[in-house]
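Re: folding output
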Amino acid sequence: MRRLLLATAAAVGFVLPAAADTRFEAVLVGHAILPAATLVQPPADAPEYFRLSGRFTGTGNVRNERAGSVPATSLPGYGPRLTGLSLPFNGQPVQGFSGIKPVGDGSYWVTGDNGFGNRRNSPDALLMIHRIRPDWASGNVAVERTVFLSDPNRVTAFPVQNEATPNRYLTGADFDLESIQPLPDGSFLIGEEFGPYILHFDAEGRLLRVVETTMDGEVLRTPDHHALQVQANPTAGTGHRVRRSGGYEGMALTPDGRTAWAMMEQPLFAPNSNNPEGQFLRVLELDVARMAWTGRTVRYRLEPGATAIGDFNFIDERRALVIERDNGEGDAGRACAQGVESTPAAPCFAMPARLKRISLVDFGAVDGEGFVRKIGHIDLMAIRDPENRARQRGDRAEGAPADVFSFPFFTIENVAMVDADHIIVGNDNNLPFSAGRHLSRADDNELILLRVPEFLRAR
């Protein structure tokens, strides 16, 4: 009945408003894969040191210079399960796409992550952004251009890992990249999590400015902010309101290019408290021309069961797509049985995926408490695949329906509108630690094309 009503509404020139929390259908029409073990060489003028990456990913972040000597296992809490790759790597991994923006010609700008997950284990991971092109016919993903980020003009107010080198290439010990917005002049805005900061780079990846985060007159910081340090008093804490890995996971640019909205990944702590201020995320408005906060904020309400967002992009002047997720990975049909632990010999999903969705929200409708209106959502765990477009389905329950495709990854961090009927969605594979598609294989970078016309037309 809803389809009939929408068709009738479109025929007479209007779109019916969606009921609260309406679920819309998504159909898989394309699936493209960049293999997990995709590596690039560092720039020719980068220190020789960067020809190896992942030296510090082991226990205690102790140095290991022997390439491929340590088998990687899934993240704590998810196994342990072997992922089939070994560290350190010869080269720099093309991994962890954490934000996406269409170029307009079938290619997309994506940002890499900070490297291997945190500041301590990523000083040999170079920061980069990529221009990629998925080929939906072949299922391949071409990396057409890689831009290594740098700070040759000493814009940062703090020392970076490559402080004493001429080009000062930036690393995962300096910043944690999570969202990307190309600007009309060819430069890039990057949402970052260690500060959290907004970073502005020119077209060649050279840092132009670092925008500190302020809200209501307060500087907002994570425990990884470069101004903070461990207190000499063992009972004294380090003041911060933004959670570790809770900074700007999503940043969306309005179609006119004048305003960027930066969204926290997780709820802020309440002032002087270890408790969250609520089951919602702060979204801050940035004036792009001035590269300054306007002081305006809104709130995004998380669904029950959701722990974070993964990406955020506008589809018109007021509506936007937001990925919401829990912390699970893997098919629930292959979950560990009650009282049974996963082992490398007998792997199972210790914390399977339950809630992975994309919500459509209206920034033009903010209620009295500052919450943006949710219009509806699609369920990434129940995507229709009537034409068998999936190129891999992974380890699923026996008898799982062949015409249903799921996206059961821990971190799903890429969503954007492609055209009036389609969106693109991609995962961050946390190389080499996430294994949500298969029980014992590192996740690839997967991109899917979904047909969702009713969803994109909802108001």
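--- second protein (sequence, then structure) ---
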Amino acid sequence: MLDQTKIDALRHTKVATQNLLINGKHLPSSDGGTLDIVSPLDGRLLTQVAAGTKEDTERAISSARAAFNDGRWRNMPAAARKKIMLKWADLIEAEALELAVLGVRDNGTEIGMAFKAECGSAATTLRFYAESIDKIYGEIAPTSPDVLGLIHKEAIGVVAAIIPWNFPLMIGAWKLGPALATGNSVVIKPSETASLSLIRMCELAHEAGLPEGVLNIVTGEGNVVGETLSHSMDVDVLVFTGSGATGRRLLQASAASNMKRCYLELGGKSANVVFADTKNLKQAAAVSAAGIFRNSGQVCVAGSRLIVERSIHNEFTEELAKCAAAMKIGDPLDVNTQSGAVNNERQLQMNLDFVETAQAEGGNLYQGGKQILKETGGYYMEPTIVTGVEANHTLAQKEVFGPVLAVTAFDTEDEAVALANCTELGLAGGVWTSDLSRAHRFTRAMKTGVVHVNTYGGADLTVPMGGVKQSGNGHDKSLHALDKYMDLKTAWIKL
């Protein structure tokens, strides 16, 4: 159980200006530039981070390339690499509360979720991939007796990872775990509005014994650091979680440079479909409310579209609204808080603009829709429910990334499938029903990478996470994620 006294003791700890981490050394930006880090909890300056330049980013790439080329990590015995990654996970776990509080002050996630989904998840992820290191084998092909066909699995080279602000440790570990387990070197760029906990996690990697240059971190603006990484001729793989607009720019940069592999997770507009035969509507409503309103809706797989059978539309919407109204919204460092702050002021205004647009297009503001707790100086928003949302409305088509739920009624299963698939995105979705056959039909019919049945969220590391359509390509999590960071090499040997 989290200790409120310990959390409060960490709440006001001064955070020093954070430098870049290149070749194992903490460095200011080459031009001395910094970015202000404003806490979403109270709108106050928390600290500053180095604003990496193009020169800094190129230096980090060169550091990663040198580390890869001389084999200081990829040629290390598998057991030794495994030991370092397991120790890294142990250090994260030992410092979990400090990391969680630092991350909450930076990005606004409620402490209960941050402790589990950030620090706990990161440590678990690194252990998962550490255990895979000495279990990755090549193959022997079935050939004629006079030929030996070998299939080698090799590290690719330099990986650039661009990480979002909602779950920097969890998503950072999803990239770093398999990239490092397979022997690559990495340059990681955190979000401008959530760098602090990820910087510390990377420092812990070096404390665990990761060789210098294998993991480098460059903070700064996306149009400088991200552009340099994506256009680099010396980055072999680019992994990114974020917006579709940025994903397109990264693909264009890849084509314009060395055609580096790009694996993009570009968000979702996930449909949560509830049929009238759902066994426990109250439980479904409670889970569905958490599935959109926890972390202020700042979750890529959030069930942001509720598609509910018309015969239970009013009953279910009312029950979900009760669950939302009962949630404690506010100070993310209060252990009783169930949904914290919106990450930044710009995102808060975008959320509010979506609500205005939804009403202008004919949606009904059922609940919420306003900024709250203005007196704190922070960025907080009520859980918001808009009913009467049609398939062509903006709120049904575009990702909000905030605590805003679009509700649409349906009459038939075919109509529900059509509504679930009516967007250009396809990351996740859910279906609630007591009919096993319908659950299987719907799972096949939904054009998404993840389908939840009679639940929403909670899939662990044993299964992949990724989307279809314009939600991107490639998968995080599971052993399948390793494939993104390895080359296959054939050796055809005449005996």
